Amino acid sequence: MSNPNEPLTLLGDLTPEEFLKSYWQQKPLLIRGAIPDFVSPLDPDELAGLACEPGVEARLVEEEGPDGPWQVSAGPFDDATFERLPAGHWSLLVQAVDHYVPGVAALMKEFDFLPGWRLDDIMVSYAPPGGSVGPHVDQYDVFLLQGRGQRRWQLGGKQPDDAPIIQGIDLKILETFEIEPDSDWTLNPGDMLYLPPGWAHHGVSQTDNCMTYSVGFRALSADEAITSFADYLGEQLPGSQRYSDAGMAPAEHTGELDDAAIERMRHFILSTLDQPKELAQWFGRAMTQPKYMDQVMPLEEPLGEEDLVAQLHAGEPLFHMPGSRIAWRTEAGVTTLFADGDGLPCTEPLARRIADPAPLYADVLELEGAVAVLTYLVNAGSLAFMDDDDE
Questions:
Q1: Is a pLDDT exceeding 70 seen at residue 391?
Q2: pTM greater than the 0.90 cutoff
């Protein structure tokens, strides 16, 4: 894990502490040579092949498509789709490439100065000359690492929530885009641009082999958080906990919702939601929900504890499944391991070990409770033994 006080080339020789204090969720940062001599883990043909696979989230954005400007098509695609495309002004976007390509997943380790549960996925885009998705705004933090070729980035400043967008298309392209001074850069392989949420940006390919790696971060919106927490909390509360108006004054008007009633309901809701322990339990589950539920599937034939122990002792390591998300929390001496939307009681040493993305070997069995927890996670689809064909 990165030392918070050690300068990182990835951050332009800023320490993680300096970056988080001055840039994270505040302002953009251009980093030349963030990963020196960077070599893209995959090429455009491999990315296109991935976009043809069922179950892979892929989009094709054409500035002038057969059905009109800024046409967006969803995968899976076929060879005919790519054969009909013009020489320029289109983009291929493939989501969660880290779930399928180990070399892309390895890039996540570069960002270990940030909580692992905040990382979402790595989207990879390919574009010939002129390819872009138009000037737009994202509501999440993102590091844009140039993988191949060149891309020109222009920034338009922090945008209000009601910034007007072009209507009638499947993209949220800004109606107006004014470039900020000194915010026009061409990135080469290994260069990187950090953007906080809400910052207008426009990236245009300058070459015929432009590939960009977008390392995105997960953040719940207000409506997602409130709805999800209320649903979770509602499942924990007894039906007897209800609105109460004991001691109220006689009604002056039988149909009126008076101020006192509104205040009682406000107090009821706020006191009901004020459940710190339940909040932590919900948050751990919410932030470890898999991006794609079908990537973390329970075993059809559950593995027994004896078989798990035997395989580990035979030298077979356990791997985290692509797309699996794990975190932990200790509160009042009690540790919970959060894995793919579930919460398990666990010892802190074991939780720390499992949350580390490194493979798990037989020595993990020395930790208290390891056999039961690991068996549960294997059967739930969060961890797995990999045979030679899977690696």
A1: no
A2: yes
